[in-house]
Amino acid sequence: QVIRREDYTAPAFLIDKVELVFDLDRDVTNVKSRLFIIANPVRGTGAGNEVSFDGEDMKLVSIAIDDRKLGVDEYSVDKTGLTFTAPGETFVVDIETQVSPVTNTRLEGLYVSQSAFCTQCEAEGFRRITYFPDRPDVMATFTVTINADKATCPVLLSNGNLAKSGDLDGNRHFAVWEDPFPKPSYLFALVAGDLACVEDSFKTVSGRDVALRIFVEHGNEDRCDYAMDSLKRSMKWDEEVYGLEYDLDLFNIVAVSDFNMGAMENKSLNIFNAKYILAKPDTATDMDYELIESIVAHEYFHNWSGNRVTCRDWFQLSLKEGLTVFRDQEFSADQRSRPVQRIKDVAQLRARQFPEDGGPLAHPVRPDSYMEINNFYTATVYEKGAELIRMMHTLLGADGYRKGIDLYFDRHDGQAVTCDDFAKAMEDANDVDLTQLKRWYSQAGTPSLSWKGDYDADAKQFRLTVSQKTAPTPGQPDKFALHMPIAIGLLGKDGKELVSRTVQLTENEQEFVFDNINETPVVSFNRGFSAPVNIATQQPHDELVFLMGNDSDAFNRWESAQKYATALMLAAIEEFEKNDGDADGALGDVTDFITAMRATLQNDDLDKAFRADALVLPGEEFLSEQRKPANPEAIHQVRNALRKQIGTMLKAEFADTYHQNVSNAAFTPDAQSAGQRALRATALGYLVASGDAQFADLAAAQYRNANNMTDRMAALAVLNHLDHPGRAEALADFEERFGKDTVVMDKWFGLQAMSSRDDTLARVKDLMSHPSFTMRNPNKVRSLIGAFAMANPRHFHAADGSGYEFYTDRLIELDDINPQVAARLCAPLGKWAKYDDDRAAKMKAALDRVLAKPEISRDLYEIASKSRAA
Ligand code: ARG
Ligand code: ZN
């Protein structure tokens, strides 16, 4: 049941060409597959002549080899696949299967979303459509014929170019699609339904005209502009920055409501979770726009980093995902504000990847084993993988990195390769040795760095001693020293930068010497988060304040504020636990911190989006990561108390900020306007936090008068925790306005699940029977159930265990519907080691209950058992 990286063997048989014919029907879809097979010339001795294909959850109608139908004793078929004997080195196999799209609630393979047929084949969904060697190193050209009802499926799509289409008997019609690029089965896609289409075009650098189409449910045509614009900008950016051009005459995107993940890069037919396509000012927030931009770019970029060059096996997933995340992060940085983008990416990494790396599910960027590959589409493979690529970029410089990229695509176009192949291209193009840097692929856990500065006035020398340590993770008791670039700034008293240099840390402990330093400098360490690590060293508060105001590295200005706030809150949390719950008393005098916050707020040289970020306190989840045991109530109270003090002390300033940043102009989603709205929302949040009732009224008024979703949600987000009548009013209004709009209603469910009000769990239970809610839709599950566990620590970790109990029931229920989503939602229960004995016992009991479920899926079993064991 455990698959190991070291067990990789090349496929015994390859497939040249695949011809598929779909007879679409919601209940029983018939699939004919014709495979042109050749024995793999490089196959090892002893590969034998047994052919084995993957296949699950479908009916085998017939199989024929070289046009001769096999008798039942000539093949064997079980729950996981089909085996038969090869007649020779090259042969043709015909397989006919039947699948049931409408009962496919796992949303892998061929399924129905709203009224349309669609597919999701990554990682191993193709085997739920037909028997096939469903592994990424088997690449074939596909010709796909789709037959379907004309009235319900006027639109028929697959990968590549439309070769033919026409009418059939019985009110049916057909389309034939040909994809000239060989691809693995996970990149196959099919869509059929009654969809509206928005069309545009792009001229590539070499003059190819590409038709761009976005398909959505009827009525959503006016919500595609931003996705389309993002697509065109992505295409241009990839040409300019990577020299990579699109390779077909057509690029299609389809938005569907039921989707397990964010989106999928199927060759020339990207399929998206509708949430990451649909946007207009009154339905989408600035954050939605940002996500749409980055996910559209991400999937587009996969055309090269993923499709033209793909993964040899799924252990190499980060080869395409880490690289593509790095590419989309850089795209967003170029489109918007670079420092603000970096802050967001790091905040994400810390909130999602660091906890993963420090918990029972820790695994390397290139894992060594898995039970279910879908469980490894993780923050580690994606985001930490992107940090690894970023470190290569830092190390080699933009030009050296680009040389490596050019060589990589040159060498491996059309191939399925490994992370080692990628690193080798980087090495060969630059004549460097990346052996030690590559340990980031294999070693799990977040390194922790400490540093100490020593100034020698006589020698005018500053010595910086840096040490690194990585704690053991499951299966990896001993850790090696990693190679990482650390960007360092040394600042003089007057704020002037004395040194800006990137040093290479390769040892467990290492000294770096800076010459010609005329005064004791203030250190700005790990600028731009050049290495994805924790810093254990606490800088004195006055140095942090100094950096907040003077560092030329905007990231570290933000970081210094985060560190200061974290230090204050952690101290207060400890005090709170001793003083029996007086949060204000525990905080003590925080005037210095708030004074520094005021300076940031009022510094008009800083852009507004940056100021908004810099004024946000580290979240409850982040704080609980720093505490053992974590006390959710203490964390919640202390953070709120600090917010209240900031709101109270800076009331006048925030009120000014609020009123100065009202905009009457029509909504535009650009970064500048978004920054203005974000800063205003931050001000409103603090004003309400001050406890002064007039500001809750102000929030209620903002909700009522809002002419865009960003302002509406900002108001609702603060009202959400209050007893103010404006809350109920706003929620009722929201439901009335958007009740029919499934993507928008996710926000409404999510808000209520995240409320800190005492009645939240009861409300969440009620909402499960709301007509718009269904356990079958992953977005709904994530916004109501997922948000409760992941964004409402106070209620999820309620001392009486009510949160865990409710949640466990949902996991068990969901596992029968959609194991992939159930497994993903299980992770919060795995954090039991971070909590007090009582909570830990309850969380372990919850995991035991999950594990005792009859017929538990492999997906959920893997996460629950690993979480329970560690
Ligand atoms: N390759 C997709 C992306 O990164 C993710 C699809 C993963 N889907 C899954 N079921 N594991 O954009
Ligand atoms: Zn991806």
From TrEMBL:
Domain Aminopeptidase N-like N-terminal: 50-187
Domain Peptidase M1 alanyl aminopeptidase Ig-like fold: 445-537
GO MF annotations, alphabetized: alanyl aminopeptidase activity; metallopeptidase activity; zinc ion binding
Catalytic activity: Release of an N-terminal amino acid, Xaa-|-Yaa- from a peptide, amide or arylamide. Xaa is preferably Ala, but may be most amino acids including Pro (slow action). When a terminal hydrophobic residue is followed by a prolyl residue, the two may be released as an intact Xaa-Pro dipeptide
Cofactor(s) needed by this chain: Zn(2+)
UniProt key word Transcription regulation: no
SUPFAM superfamilies referenced in this protein's UniProt entry, alphabetically: Leukotriene A4 hydrolase N-terminal domain, Metalloproteases ('zincins'), catalytic domain
Residues covered by the Peptidase M1 alanyl aminopeptidase C-terminal domain: 542-868
EC numbers on record: 3.4.11.2
Alphabetized CDD domains for the sequence: M1_APN (cd09600)
GO biological process, one term: proteolysis
Keyword DNA-binding in annotation: no
Peptidase M1 membrane alanine aminopeptidase domain ranges (all copies): 226-440
Annotated keywords: Aminopeptidase, Hydrolase, Metal-binding, Metalloprotease, Protease, Zinc
Stretches that traverse the bilayer: none
Protein family (similarity comment): Belongs to the peptidase M1 family.
Known role: Aminopeptidase N is involved in the degradation of intracellular peptides generated by protein breakdown during normal growth as well as in response to nutrient starvation.
Stated name of the protein: Aminopeptidase N
